[in-house]
Specification:
- The structure holds two protein chains of two kinds.
- Chain A has helices at about 5-20, 30-50, 80-100, 115-130, 135-145, 145-155, 160-195, 200-210, 215-230, 240-245, 250-260, 260-275, 275-305, 310-330, 330-365, 375, 380-390, 400-410, 415-440, 465, 480-495, 500-515, and strands at about 60-70, 75-80.
- By secondary structure, chain A is mainly α.
- Chain A has a domain at about 285-450 and about 460-528.
- In chain A, strands 1-2 form a two-stranded antiparallel ribbon.
- The longest helix of chain A has about 35 residues, at about 160-195.
- Chain B is mostly helical.
- Chain B has one domain (about 15-520).
- Chain B contains 21 helices and five strands.
- In chain B, helix 6 runs antiparallel to helix 7 (about 170-190), helix 7 packs antiparallel against helix 12 (about 285-310) and helix 17 (about 415-425) packs antiparallel against helix 19 (about 450-475).
- Chains A and B meet through helix 5, helix 6 and helix 7 of A and helix 18, helix 19 and helix 21 of B.
C-alpha cells in the first residue's frame, strides 16, 4: 500500500464517518457507537502510518502529491516527518478517548450527540490534514478550515458563555490566519521570482530558503509568527484560550488544548525555521522572551484561578512557553524535547481536562472553591487526578519529566539565561498543581458541589455542618470512565520510563530542522 | 442641400461582425419581443410566456457565446467601427453575466415563496392605502396569480446594457450602455410588493444619485475628448503617451469618469446608495443588482484602466489605493453596526468592492484574471445569499431584521446550513470560492508590489468576518424567538437558484482550475 494513501484515508475516513453519524440524529446511542467505531479505525490507520515510517529515512515520507490548482502552483501534497507523525498518532489516540469521555456528557438543551460526534470527526480530519500537508497552500487551508468545526463545538455544545468564547476563538484565529495568508502569498510571489514559477511545495521552498534576503524573510516570518503565536498560544496572544478552554465541552477542550494548539508550535518547526532560517536566527530572542515570560506569567495566573477549566488552560499556556523555548534554542536535544513535550502535554493535559470534566459532571460547578475532600468520596477519581497533575508538574517517572528535562538541558548551552529563568517555572508548576489537588481532593468533604447545596441556603458556607450530610450522588469513577482514563495513565508512565521509541522517530527530523536553520548543535551535544 | 445629401450617401455603414456580437443581439431582441409579449399576450398567460421567453433568450445567448468561443476562440477583435471589443475578458464577463442572470431570473420568476411573486401587481397604488395592503397580502383575486411582468423586459434590457458595458471600447458607447443598464434597474428597484414606501424611496434615491453619477461620467468623457480628440480608449492611451497636452484634462477626465464607474460598482466612498437600495428593492432585484451590476461595473473599470490608462498608472494608482482602503474600511466597519440582513450584505458588498479594486488596479494579467474570477465567485455567492433571504419570512413578508434570524438552525437546519456556508464563503474561509477569489486577487496585488494594501485588505477581511459570524452565532447558538419567522418551503425556481449558487461556490472553492483558466484566456483588445 502506498504510504501516502494511509494519510489520505486518515483525512477522508473521519469525514465519511461524520456524514454517517450526522444522519443518525434520531438514535443517540447508535450515533455515538458509530462515531467511536470510526475513531478506532482511524487509530488503526494511525498505527499503520507509524509502522510504515522509517526513522532516519527521507525527510518527508508517506508522500502523495497530485496537481490541484495549477494557476496557483498548488498541489494536494501529503507527507509526514517524525514530528508530524507523532502528532498524528496523538490525534489517533486522543479522539477515541475523547469520545468515550463525552459519552454521557450533558449537552445544552436541544443538541444531539450525533451533531457533537460528527463535529469531532470533522475536526479530526482537519487536524490530520494540517499535520500531513506538505504544500503550504494546503496547510493554510486546513489551518483555517479546522476553526469551523471547533467553532461549532464550542458555540453549540459549550458552557454558559459559549457564544462569546466561540466568537473570540474564531476571530483571534482568523485574524492570525489572515496575516499568515499575506505571508503565504508573499512566499508564493518570492518563489516565483527565484524559480521562475511560483510554488507552494514545501521541499522546493526549503531549498530556496537560504537565498531569500533576510529583510524579506523577516517580513514573511512575522506573518507566519503572528498566526502561530496566536494558535500556540504565546503570551501576549493567549487571551482567547482561557475563555475557549473554559467554555468548550470537555471533549472539544481536550482536542483544542491537546492537539490544535500544537499546530502553532508545529508551524514554527515545519514552516518558520526551515523556510526562513535567517529570520529565525535573528528573531529568536523575541520568541524566547515571549516564551519565558509566558512560562512565568501563565503559571502565576494558574495559581490564582478559581475556575478549574481556566486553571488547566493557564497551565497549558505555561507549558507552551517551555515548548517554544525548546524550539527556538536550536539544538537537536532541545527540539526533540519540545516535540516530545507536545505529545506528552497532549496526554497529561488531556487527562487532566478529562478528570476535571468528570469532577464537574458530578459536582455541577467549575469553581475550585465548590469542591473539597473529594478523595474521601471518590478515591479512584482522586488518584487519576493526582497522576495527571504530577505529570503536569513534570515529576520524574512521568512522561513530562523526560521532555521538560530534554528542553532545559538542550537549551542551556546556547541560552543559559533564558533556561535558568524558565526553570523557576517548574517550581510554580509544583505550587499550582499541588495546591489545586489539596484544595479539591484532600481534607474533609466540603464545598457546595460535594456536599449538597440542595440542603438549603447556608449549607455551602458551613462546611462542618454539611460534612455530615454526604451527598450520595458523588460516586467514584464508573467502569466506562476508568476504561477511558487507563490508556492515558498507562501512556504517562510508559513514556516516563521508556520514551525511546518516540524519540527515535522524532530525533532525525528535528536534527534535520536544526540543520535547515543553518546551525549545528552546540559543542558536546549530538543527536541523542 | 443637395450637396449635403450626397455627402450622407457617402457614409458607409461600419462592418459588423454579427457572429461575435450575437449574444448581445439575442438579449436585446429577446427584450424587444418581451415588450411585445407584455402588450399583446393576455394577462393570465403573460407570466408563463415571459419566463419561457427569458429562459430561451438566455439559453440562446449562452449558445451563441459558446459557439463563438468554440469556432473562433478568444482572439481579440474589434467591431462596429471600433466601438465594441470582443476579447478574452469580454467573453468571460459575458459568460459570467449570462450565468448569473440565470440565477437572478429564477429568483425574479418565483411565485410561490411570496404568493404571486415578489413584485407589486400595481405599482401606481399609493403606499399605505387599503388597496396597497390588499395587493401586499394578495387578497385581491387577480393578484394571487399575477405580478407585474414588466420586470422581465426590464431585466433583459438591463442585462443587455451590462453586456455592452463590459465590451464597450469607446467611452460614448460605454455611456449609452450605462444608461441602458441603469434605467431599468431604477424602475425595478421600485417594484417591490411589500414595503412600498421603502421600495419607492430606494428607486428615487438610486435614480437621483445614478443620474448624478452619469453626469460625472459624461463630463469626464467630455474632458477626455478635449484631451485626446477621441473617445476611443486606445486613442486616449496613445494621446497620453509622451505629449505636451495639458494633464489637467486627462486626469480631471479620468477622475470624473472613474467616479461614475465606482458609483455603479458601489465602491466606497461612492457607496451611499447601496444600503438603501439593497434594502428597499425586492430581494430578487437586489440579488440581480448585487451580482450583475458589480460584474458590469468592474468589467468596465478593468477595461478603462487597462486599455486607456495603463501608461499613466503611476499618476493615478495612489489615489485608487486610497479609494480601495476607504471602501474596505467603510464596508467592514459599518457592516458591524447593521441590524438588517439586507443592509448588512450591502455593506459586505462595499467591502468586497474594495477587495475587487485591489485586484483591478494591479493591471497585470494575474490581476485581470483574479478580479474576473472574484466577480464570478462573489456573484454566485451573493445571489444565493439573497435567495435564502427571500425564504425567511413572517406575516409582513421577509423577516430581514437580524434578531428574527435567532435560532434559525433549530427550525430549519438546511436553510441555516446553506446560509452559514454562504457566509463563510463571503468571509473567505478556504474551500469556498470566496477564499479562492481573495487568494487570486491578493496574490496578484502582492506580485505587483502592493504589499501594504494587501495587509490592509486582510485586516479588513478579519473585521468583516465578525459580522458574518454574528449571523452564524444568531442562527446556531441563540434560542429562537417565540414569534419568530418561518422559513417558506422554496418553490422550484428559488430552490434552483440557491442550489446553483451554492454548488458554484463550493466548486470554485475546491476545483477552481477550470474557471481560473478561462479567466486567464487572454488580454483586452485595443
Amino acid at each position: 500500500m502506498n504510504g501516502g494513501a494511509v494519510l489520505l484515508a486518515m483525512i477522508l475516513l473521519p469525514l465519511i464517518g461524520a456524514a454517517v453519524v450526522a444522519l443518525m440524529r434520531s438514535s443517540p446511542v447508535a450515533a455515538k457507537a458509530t462515531g467511536l467505531g470510526f475513531a478506532l479505525v482511524e487509530l488503526v490507520l494511525a498505527a499503520a502510518a507509524w509502522s510504515g515510517y522509517q526513522p532516519g529515512g527521507g525527510r518527508l515520507q508517506l508522500t502523495l502529491s497530485v496537481p490541484w490548482i495549477p494557476a496557483f502552483g498548488t498541489r494536494f501534497a501529503l507527507g509526514v516527518d517524525g514530528i508530524a507523525l507523532v502528532m498524528i498518532a496523538l490525534i489517533g489516540v486522543l479522539v477515541p478517548i475523547v469520545m468515550g469521555s463525552s459519552w454521557a456528557e450533558k449537552l445544552p438543551e436541544g443538541r444531539t450527540p450525533a451533531g457533537f460526534y460528527a463535529q469531532i470527526l470533522v475536526l479530526e480530519s482537519m487536524l490530520v490534514g494540517v499535520f500531513a500537508a506538505t504544500d503550504v497552500f494546503l496547510f493554510y487551508l486546513f489551518f483555517e478550515v479546522m476553526l469551523v468545526p471547533m467553532y461549532f463545538l464550542i458555540g453549540r455544545f459549550g458552557g454558559p458563555r459559549r457564544q462569546y468564547a466561540a466568537v473570540k476563538f474564531f476571530l483571534y484565529s482568523l485574524l492570525g490566519g489572515l496575516v499568515m495568508l499575506a505571508s503565504v502569498i508573499g512566499l508564493f510571489v518570492v518563489s516565483g521570482q527565484r524559480l521562475g514559477h511560483g510554488t507552494f511545495d514545501w521541499a522546493a521552498l526549503e531549498r530556496i530558503a537560504s537565498t531569500i534576503p533576510t529583510s524579506t524573510q523577516i517580513w514573511l516570518f512575522l506573518g507566519f509568527f503572528v498566526a502561530f503565536a496566536i494558535k500556540a498560544p504565546l503570551v501576549p496572544f493567549h487571551t482567547w484560550l482561557p475563555d475557549a478552554g473554559a467554555e468548550a465541552p470537555v471533549g472539544a477542550g481536550v482536542l483544542l488544548v491537546g492537539v490544535m494548539d500544537k499546530v502553532g508550535i508545529y508551524g514554527f518547526l515545519r514552516y518558520c525555521l526551515p523556510l526562513f532560517p535567517a529570520a529565525s536566527r535573528t528573531l529568536a530572542p523575541l520568541v524566547l522572551v515571549l516564551a519565558v515570560a509566558g512560562i512565568l506569567y501563565a503559571a502565576l495566573l494558574a495559581v490564582g484561578q478559581s475556575d478549574m477549566k481556566r486553571f488547566v488552560a493557564y497551565t497549558s499556556v505555561s507549558h507552551f512557553g517551555f515548548i517554544a523555548l525548546g524550539v527556538f534554542a536550536f539544538s537537536t536535544q532541545a527540539q526533540a524535547g519540545a516535540v516530545l513535550y507536545m505529545v506528552n502535554h497532549g496526554i497529561s493535559t488531556g487527562m487532566l481536562f478529562i478528570v476535571i470534566g468528570m469532577l464537574i459532571g458530578r459536582g455541577g460547578s467549575r469553581l475550585i472553591s465548590d469542591y473539597g475532600g473529594v478523595a474521601a468520596l471518590a478515591p479512584v477519581l482522586a488518584g487519576m487526578t493526582l497522576l495527571a497533575g504530577l505529570s503536569a508538574l513534570s515529576l520524574p517517572g512521568t512522561n513530562s519529566f523526560v521532555s521538560e528535562f530534554l528542553v532545559l538541558i538542550g537549551s542551556f548551552p546556547r541560552q543559559p539565561v533564558f533556561t535558568v529563568i524558565a526553570t523557576t517555572g517548574m517550581i510554580l508548576a509544583a505550587l499550582y498543581v499541588l495546591w489545586f489537588y489539596q484544595r479539591v481532593m484532600q481534607g474533609p468533604a466540603r464545598g457546595a458541589a460535594v456536599v449538597g447545596a440542595l440542603d438549603g441556603p447556608g449549607a455551602a458556607t458551613a462546611p462542618e455542618a454539611g460534612a455530615h450530610r454526604k451527598r450520595i450522588d458523588f460516586p467514584d469513577l464508573s467502569i466506562r470512565e476508568i476504561v477511558v482514563l487507563v490508556p492515558l495513565a498507562a501512556l504517562i508512565l510508559l513514556l516516563g520510563f521508556f520514551p525511546q521509541p518516540v524519540l527515535n522517530v522524532i530525533t532525525p527530523s528535528v536534527g534535520a530542522t536544526v540543520t535547515e536553520v543553518g546551525l549545528s548543535d552546540p559543542v558536546g551535544q549530538g543527536g541523542s | 442641400m443637395l450637396g449635403f445629401l450626397t455627402q450622407v450617401q457617402h457614409v458607409t455603414a461600419p462592418a459588423v461582425d454579427y457572429g461575435a456580437i450575437a449574444p448581445i443581439l439575442i438579449v436585446f431582441s429577446g427584450a424587444c419581443i418581451s415588450v411585445l409579449v407584455e402588450a399583446f399576450v393576455a394577462r393570465p398567460a403573460r407570466w408563463s410566456a415571459q419566463v419561457a421567453l427569458t429562459v430561451l433568450t438566455l439559453a440562446a445567448a449562452g449558445a451563441a457565446l459558446g459557439m463563438h468561443l468554440y469556432t473562433r476562440g478568444a482572439t481579440p477583435l474589434v467591431t462596429l467601427a471600433g466601438t465594441i471589443a470582443v476579447d478574452g475578458p469580454g467573453l468571460f464577463l459575458w459568460g459570467t453575466l449570462l450565468a448569473l442572470s440565470v440565477g437572478a431570473m429564477l429568483l425574479i420568476a418565483d411565485r410561490t415563496v411570496e404568493p404571486g411573486g415578489a413584485f407589486t401587481p400595481d405599482a401606481a397604488v399609493r403606499p399605505g392605502t387599503t388597496a396597497d395592503r390588499a395587493q401586499a397580502v394578495g387578497t385581491i383575486a387577480h393578484t394571487e396569480t399575477t405580478m407585474q411582468t414588466e420586470v422581465f423586459p426590464l431585466f433583459l434590457f438591463s442585462l443587455g446594457g451590462m453586456m455592452v458595458f463590459t465590451a464597450a471600447n469607446d467611452l460614448l458607447t460605454m455611456f449609452i450602455a450605462l444608461e441602458v443598464l441603469s434605467l431599468p434597474l431604477y424602475l425595478m428597484a421600485g417594484m417591490a410588493r411589500r414595503r412600498r414606501l421603502l421600495s419607492q424611496e430606494a428607486a428615487v434615491k438610486y435614480f437621483l444619485l445614478g443620474a448624478f453619477s452619469s453626469a460625472f461620467f459624461l463630463y469626464g468623457v467630455a474632458l477626455l475628448y478635449g484631451y485626446a480628440g477621441s473617445v476611443q480608449l486606445s486613442r486616449i492611451a496613445e494621446a497620453s503617451a509622451g505629449t505636451d497636452r495639458p494633464d489637467t484634462l486627462l486626469f480631471g477626465g479620468l477622475a470624473l469618469l472613474i467616479i461614475g464607474l465606482l458609483f455603479k460598482g458601489s465602491v466606497g466612498p461612492f457607496h451611499t446608495w447601496t444600503p438603501d437600495v439593497y434594502q428597499g428593492a425586492a430581494t430578487p432585484v437586489t440579488a440581480f443588482m448585487a451580482a450583475c451590476t458589480k460584474v458590469a461595473a468592474f468589467g468596465a473599470i478593468l477595461r478603462v484602466l487597462t486599455v486607456g490608462f495603463e501608461g499613466t498608472r503611476w499618476e493615478w494608482r495612489g489615489l485608487l489605493w486610497g479609494v480601495a482602503i476607504v471602501s474596505m474600511v467603510i464596508g467592514a466597519v459599518l457592516g458591524l453596526t447593521q441590524t438588517d440582513i439586507k443592509r448588512m450584505i450591502a455593506y459586505s458588498s462595499i467591502a468586497h468592492a474594495g477587495f475587487l479594486l485591489v485586484g483591478a488596479i494591479a493591471l497585470t494579467t494575474q490581476g485581470l484574471s483574479g478580479t474576473m474570477f472574484y466577480l464570478l465567485a462573489y456573484g454566485f455567492t451573493t445571489l444565493a445569499a439573497f435567495g435564502v433571504v427571500t425564504l425567511v419570512r413572517d406575516a409582513d413578508g421577509e423577516a430581514t431584521h437580524l434578531s428574527q434570524w435567532a435560532g434559525l438552525a433549530k427550525r430549519s437546519p438546511l436553510t441555516a446550513a446553506v446560509f452559514a456556508f454562504l457566509l463563510f464563503a463571503l468571509a473567505g474561509i478556504p474551500l469556498t470560492s470566496g477564499f479562492t477569489g481573495k487568494f487570486a486577487v491578493f496574490s496578484a496585488a502582492l506580485a505587483d508590489g502592493m504589499a501594504p494594501l494587501v495587509v490592509v485588505a486582510l485586516v479588513a477581511s478579519a473585521v468583516a468576518a465578525f459580522f458574518y459570524l454574528r449571523v452564524v452565532v444568531l442562527m446556531y447558538f441563540s434560542e429562537p424567538a417565540a414569534d419568530g419567522p418561518t422559513v417558506s418551503v422554496p418553490g422550484t425556481f428559488t430552490t434552483a437558484a440557491i442550489t446553483l449558487g451554492v454548488v458554484v461556490t463550493l466548486l470554485l472553492g475546491v476545483v477552481p482550475t477550470f474557471a481560473l483558466d478561462w479567466a486567464g484566456l487572454g488580454g483586452f483588445a485595443s
